Amino acid sequence: xxxxxxFVRSQFPALAGEWAYMDNAGGSQxxxxxxxxxxxxxxxxxxxTGASYAPSQLSLKRVSExxxxxxRFMNCDPGEIVEGPNTTILLRFLSEAMTSRLRPGDEIILTxxxxxxxxxxxxxxxxxxxxxxxxxxDPETFELxxxxxxxLVTERTRxxxxxxxxxxxxxxxxIPEIARIAHEAGAELVVDAVAYAPHRAIDVKALGADxxxxxxxxxxxxxxxxxxxxxxxxEALDNIYHYFFDKxxxxxxxxxxxxxxxxxxxxxxxxxxxxELGTRAGAPRGRAAIEAxxxxxxxQERVVTARLMDFLLSRNSVRVVGRPSTAVExxxxxxxxxxxxxxxxxxxxxxxxxxVGIRHGDFYARRVVEEHGLMRQDGVVRVSMIHYNTxxxxxxxxxxxxxxx
Length: 405
Hints:
Elements (H helix, E strand, L loop, with lengths): L4 H6 L9 E2 L10 H13 L9 H21 L6 E4 L2 H11 L9 E5 L8 H4 L7 E5 L10 H7 L4 E7 L11 H10 L3 E5 L11 H4 L3 E5 L9 E5 L1 H6 L24 H20 L6 H27 L4 E3 L13 E6 L4 H9 L3 E2 L1 E3 L4 H6 L8 E5 L6 H14 L1
Parallel strand pairs: 1-11, 3-4, 3-5, 5-6, 6-7
Antiparallel strand pairs: 2-8, 7-8, 9-10, 10-13, 12-13
InterPro entries: Aminotrans_V_dom, Cys_dSase-rel, PyrdxlP-dep_Trfase, PyrdxlP-dep_Trfase_major, PyrdxlP-dep_Trfase_small
Protein name: Cysteine desulfurase-like protein
Organism: Plantimonas leprariae
């Protein structure tokens, strides 16, 4: 089965305009059905949950359905879904909720390829005597070596924090293997999945992560985010909400100020959309349809990534920053590169006139960019495609890039 691109593109009103959007790792375009749901919530059920009157009960029902939808999306229990405004905030909440469990001499392992969202919150514990260890990538290949991780973990390791897919490199990291290494040492695994979630089906049970976080606004939805946490792990966390919230009041003790109801209700549209892609391909509704939908997504993204990668690898002046492979198990459709000693800013600005949206910089994964000397070129050029991008759009990009290279 092939993805029905006419159907796909009809679901995103912004795609009817002149621009080709290839900055999707910063935020995808939004489904019409998502916007309709946000408007519907605000216009028909915009009241606080928890009261006895009917509109409040409707609001509560809708918020509960959000957890059901993302439990289906991630293959977990609805009570294991924590929501918030973005991944950065949810990881800060998680870090704060671990305060009483992290003691002087404990160890946290961080990578230098992660977005700062999965670094900064954990560095705060260093002032309390927690030891930070760095799992650094190879300076030539930008790969994280599992043997290096094995050498870092000890009986004092409490957390390993890693991205599922780098928002610069596009590399898919082997989360199940990383989880095994962490768990054998008695540590927990925190995964930032922001750059992975738009591209592949998520099965947190198979992955083995203890905490798994992504932002819905990268997955065709509103500015909202979701965190899975194993139920027993969530119950053991500190309460970061009001003092009268019991420690086992999950997930609400981890959602201070409550969640954004209209964004939560709107986000269901993103789950429904992927599920519909699967049912249109013949899969039964539910988890099977979500997996089938993402299989179609992955193949379309492989095609457009291969088109771009073939061009980039044909140019002697271009260095692809990350894996040159376009296999679906190796990378997502986020491709970064540099051009000799040229400014990445100049390359991107040369493309703007073609009405193709790409970007340059460090994308808040600044440590890997700084440590490998890429800041002097204004960072990398990043082309981040998703399944609604077409081969024709990639050809437009290539035509605009060629004279700039």
